[in-house]
Known about the structure:
The chain is 35% helix and 16% strand. It folds into two domains: 2-96 and 288-307, 3-Layer(aba) Sandwich (Rossmann fold), CATH 3.40.50.720; 98-279, Rossmann fold, CATH 3.40.50. A seven-stranded parallel sheet has the order 8-7-6-9-10-11-12, sandwiched between helices. The protein has a five-stranded parallel sheet with strand order 2-1-3-4-5. The chain is built from twelve helices and twelve strands.
Amino acid sequence: MRIVISEFMDDxxxxxxxxxxxxxxxxxxxxxxxxxxxxxxxxxxxxxxxRTQVDVALLASAPRLRVVGRLGVGLDNIxxxxxxxxxxxxxxxxxxxxxxxxxxxxxxxxxxLRAAYQSSVDVAAGKWPRAALSGGREILGKxxxxxxxxxxxxxxxxxxxxxxxxxxGFDPQVAADSxxxxxxxxxxxxxxxxxxxxxxxSLHVPLTARTRNLIDAAAIASMPRGAILINTSRGGVVDxxxxxxxxxxxxxxxxxxxxxxxxxxxxxxPLAGCPRLLLTPHIAGLTHESNLRVSTxxxxxxxxxxxx
Length: 308
């Protein structure tokens, strides 16, 4: 049986798959669509990250395809309806990168609340902005608002609570009376209430028609002045121009964006030059450890699906 891997995966895990299957592995195959389609002509499984678009056209080039493994959890690059119509199983790595994302969120929250960690150049040059940087905020006692309460949202809440934060959350897929809220020591609230109560807002939702621009100018205006916004979910969930305006005005006390409407972020973005802003290239869920966990989980599940 043949497995095609079109984006990067843990090397040791790939080597293990190669001992059991005919494997085509090229971490840059996603950038060569014609070559990818040719490789899929006799493929039984495809393993992707978030850049490979598994759409109707790609599926048409893979008549033998039985399973798609996703090295991550978001499925917006995979046409799940088309896969279902073809009886192609889609397997995400649910939970495997949750700790990595949670650590990113809490670290970013601490950095942005303290607002003192971008002074290295000035201090090294002999400047001493002690007065200007002495008004930072501690994370203890602050409230984190979690929009989306799946495996990543819950892990983020656990880590935030461990360092003294309170947690409130909203997820239309989790009933307000579900026991999971009490188990996770998180208060279930309406979306508007989460916005109104949070010192830090962390987003953990898929990109759908209902979540596109969920955090727009009106949503930001309903948050406490000086609140921190962190987006590790999908870029289209946030109106980037509204975030830029809120940072410039001081309405937002800071923002950390790991995902964007268009990736890479386009030149001339309104975010360029904004104060109190951390930008990272879609790596919140990527660490050495999480890559190993994600790769191992998907390798095992894809192998099991092919054996069934």
